[in-house]
Structure formats: C-alpha cells, structure tokens
Amino acid sequence: MTVQEADGWSVADAPVIVSLQNVDKYFGPVHVLNDVSLDVAQGEVVVVIGPSGSGKSTLCRAINRLEPIDSGQIIVNGQPLPEEGKQLALLRAEVGMVFQSFNLFAHKTILDNVTLGPRKVRKTPKADAEKEAMALLERVGIKDQAGKLPAQLSGGQQQRAAIARALAMHPKLMLFDEPTSALDPEMINEVLDVMVDLAKNNMTMIVVTHEMGFARRVADRVVFMSDGCLLEQATPEEFFTNPQTDRAKDFLAKILQH
Amino acid sequence: MGFLGGYGQVLADSSVLGAFWVNITLTFWSAIIALVLGTAAAAMRISPFTSFRAVSTLFVNIFRDIPLTVVMVMMSLVVSMALGVQFSNDLNLDAYVLAVIGLGLYHSAFVAEALRSGVNTVPLGQAEAARAIGLTFSQSASLVVLPQAFRGAIAPLGNTLIALIKNTTVATAVGVAAQTSGLMKGMIEIHANYVFAIFMTFALGYVIIVIPVGLATTALSRRLAVKR
Ligand SMILES: Nc1ncnc2c1ncn2[C@@H]1O[C@H](COP(=O)(O)OP(=O)(O)OP(=O)(O)O)[C@@H](O)[C@H]1O
Ligand SMILES: [Mg+2]
Question: Beta partners for A26?
C-alpha cells in the first residue's frame, strides 16, 4: 500500500514548503553547508541526522535566516528569503522553531510566552490570544502551568511550552533542532509524543534528532549529513537497513551501539 | 549660648533642607534624561546596523571619559556662551537646566554601560527565540532583551544613581548656587568656627539619602532577578 492510497494524496503532489537550492555557508574557512539542496513538501516529516559538527543546526538556522547563507537560494512557501527587516520577520513568523535549550522568555509567564508572538506580530487581541494559548497549552499537556515562569518548570514541560509558543503563530513549517537532547531521559517521551501528534496532524516538520525510534515511526524521509554535505536521503526503512555511504554506516554503527 | 545652641542657630538661618531639595530635584530630572539617552544608546549598541553601533560607542566614550566638571564647564562655555542657547530669562533657571542636561548626558554614558553589562546577562538564545517567532529587531529588543537587561543591570544602575546624587554638587560649575555644595561653601566662609560641624551636617545628609537608595536597589535586584 502506498502513501497515496492511504491518505488520498501523495507527498509528490503536495506543494513544496521549503526548497534549498545549492546552499553554501562558510564559518571562516569551515564549509558548514556544502552545496545543499533539499525540498520539503507540505505535510512531510524530514528527520536530519549526522555526526556532531556536520551542519544540522546551521541547516535549520539558515531556513529561517538566523544564519545568513553565502550562496544558493532558500525558498520558503514560494518566496525567496528576504533580507533582514520587516519582510523577514513576517516570514519567520510562518516558520516555527524549537531549540535544544528551549529558549523560553525567562521573564515572562508560560502564557505570556505563548501569546507574545500572536499579540505583537499578528496583532491578535489579548483575550483571543490567551484563549488560543490555553488551548495549545492543553494540547501539549501543561495547561495548569500557564501562570508560572519558565524556570519553575521541568525541562520537558519547558520544551512543550516552547512548542506551544511556536504553534501559536500557525506556522507553515516547524523546525526542531535536537529538541530532546537537553532533557533527562524520563522527559524525552513527553516531548516526542507532542511531536508525533503534530506529525499526525499533517504538520510539515524538519527534525534534527538522534531519536532513531522517532525517526522510524514518524519520518517520511531521513536525511543524512556529514561535513556540511547532504550525503543520503531515503525512507527511514531504507536508510536504517541499507545505508549507502560508508560514513552513514559508521555513524549508524556508533549510535546503534547505545 | 553653647556650641550646640550656636550651631543650631547657624542651621536655622541656613536653608539646608532647601539646598538638599535642589540636589534631589537635579537628580530626578537628570536621572530621567540619563535613563532615556542611556537606554537609546544601549539599544543602538546591540542593533544590527554598524552605523548605529558606531554612533553609540562614540557617544558613550565621549561622556564616560571626560571628567564631569569639564562636561559642566562645556555646557556653560559651549552651549550657553558660544552657541548662545538660553533656556530661560531667569539666570538661575537657565543654570539649572544647563546642569540637568550636563548631568543627564554624562550619566547616560554610565547607564548605557550598565545596561550593556545587563545585556550580557541575557543569553543569545532569548533574542534568537524572539526573532524566530517573527518579532522585529526593535520588538525583540524592547520586549525581550532590554527588560531582562534592566533586571540584570539594577545593581550597576543603582550605583550610577548614587554617583549621580553626589555628582549633582558639581552643578556649582554652571552656576547653580542654591544647592548643597554652594550652601556649604557659603556657610563655612561665614561661620569658620563651625567648619567641622557644617561639614559633618552635609556628609550626614548625603549618607541619609544614599543609604536607602543602596538598600532599595539591592532588594530590587534580588527580587527582580531573572531566574534561568
Ligand atoms: N557561530 C559559529 N561560528 C563559527 N563556527 C561555527 C558557528 N556555529 C557553528 N560553527 C561550526 O560549524 C560547523 C557546523 O555546526 P552545527 O552546529 O551546524 O553542527 P551540528 O551538526 O548541529 O552539530 P551538533 O550535533 O554538535 O549540534 C561546526 O564545525 C561548528 O564548529
Ligand atoms: Mg546542532
């Protein structure tokens, strides 16, 4: 049974949400992104894996232009990334980002963290923004933490709040940069569950993670990066059972030992 | 009449409280100017535009490095005499305004530096998260970075305020005579026999004003500290 038969549409038919075309990025002499091309379609979940320093974070950050690129093109939602300024801010609002270290606004309550974007960027009235924020917090299971400050929450709760904050902007795409790497093991699943739920609800996602269980279960595609190059793209099944490059084989051998 | 009675009479004849009040109002108005200019300079210092950063750096360095008395004399010589700017026909009020502007400019450099040290307490991830949800540079500065920077800068801001309170005595340099250092000088000239008592009176007055400010900023910086 193909994806097409199951959902009535296939990834190939869906519009492309992000398109990276021959993207290069240097940090000084280091070629951090080396001729990277990648298309992600509406509703697709792409898991990015690769050794430390291979450029996974930089890839995510380039997509919402937290890092400028040196050459190539990044098209988000049909629009090339604008230069710094109002236009770029509006485009960033369409792309949700979840960081390894949560980065909740430390001086604001969880509720205010979630409503800040809608109120200041979308000009949503306070009452409406709060109503939706509470619904989102309920969805990620931390409704009763709404009035607390980030430092009063556990890591898992903070990361779920950060996901709610990103969702409040109604993003077309969600970027996750190792969202569970900073968490104690017992909190990893509560965050992954929220991400699985998002994927089921047809959210377009690019996820940098070492959680192979998540990749197998949720990813439509696994992308393997090494030294700034995008070396392999395959379904999780293909990639994990039959990696093509030596580097991917090495990498899998190392992480599967654990 | 004993020593105490005699000095009591000296105090009764001099407007010590009035003089302190002048220093307090000088502090108030120049603190507002310093806070506004200092915040603007700090915001420019963290902006993505090189020219803004350069202007802010220049401004801060000029007013931080020139001694306050020189700034005050410059206010008199340059603004008042050379440029002929007059804020009021009342010479006393004119001097007062010059003093407020000079004090405000000088201390704004220290406010900017205090805020910059506060900005350094805010992790980079805070600004990145703000930009990632679509806030513009000025929104992420005013809603996320600077509010946390202020909380991290309360202690150095308090120190700047204390320095400002004491530095208002330099207002003499532009001709604000009705304040503490002017009065103290006058009193010592007339009542040379009470020089030590007069001196102690003014020293004590400043201690009484400054101690609560120090306690308040310490308490405030503890209470408002951003927990991470
Ligand atoms: N701001 C920076 N300045 C200079 N070099 C950087 C910077 N950020 C990243 N790098 C370098 O770029 C390369 C790619 O970094 P990146 O963070 O994208 O890797 P990563 O795949 O996310 O690694 P990890 O798994 O450790 O998070 C590394 O060599 C890193 O040292
Ligand atoms: Mg990384």
Answer: A31
- Give mean pLDDT, residues B109-128: 95
Greater pLDDT, B103 or A258 = B103
Q: Which pair of tokens denotes residue A200?
A: 């089921």
CA distance A149 to A125: 22
Q: How many CB atoms lie within 10 A of CB B223?
A: 9
Q: How many domains does chain B have?
A: 1
Question: Phi and psi (nearest 5°) for B211?
Answer: -55, -50
Amino acid B172: pLDDT: 85
B173 pLDDT higher than 90: no
User: CA quadruple B168, B169, B171, B176: dihedral positive or negative?
Assistant: positive
Q: What CATH number is given to the structural domain containing B100?
A: 1.10.3720.10
Percent of chain A with pLDDT over 90: 87
Residue in B133, B148, B227 closest to A121 by CB: B133
User: Which pairing describes strands A71-76 and A79-80: parallel, antiparallel, or unpaired?
Assistant: antiparallel
| B44 touches B55 (CB < 8 A) | yes
Q: Domain range spanning residue B161?
A: 3-224
Q: How many CB atoms lie within 10 A of CB B63?
A: 23
Least confident of B12-16, B124-128, B209-213: B12-16
Helix, strand or coil for residue B122? coil
Q: What is the pLDDT of residue A189?
A: 95
Contacts of B186 (CB under 8 A, 6+ apart): B14
A127 touches chain B (CB under 8 A): no
Report yes or no: A191 and A159 within 8 Å, Cβ to Cβ: yes
Write the residue in B48, B134, B137 that is nearest to A121 by C-beta.
B134
ipTM, two decimals: 0.90
Q: Using most ligand atoms within 8 A of CB, pick from A32, A49, A66, A227 the residue to mutate for ligand 1.
A: A32
Contact at 8 Å (CB) between B117 and B109?
no
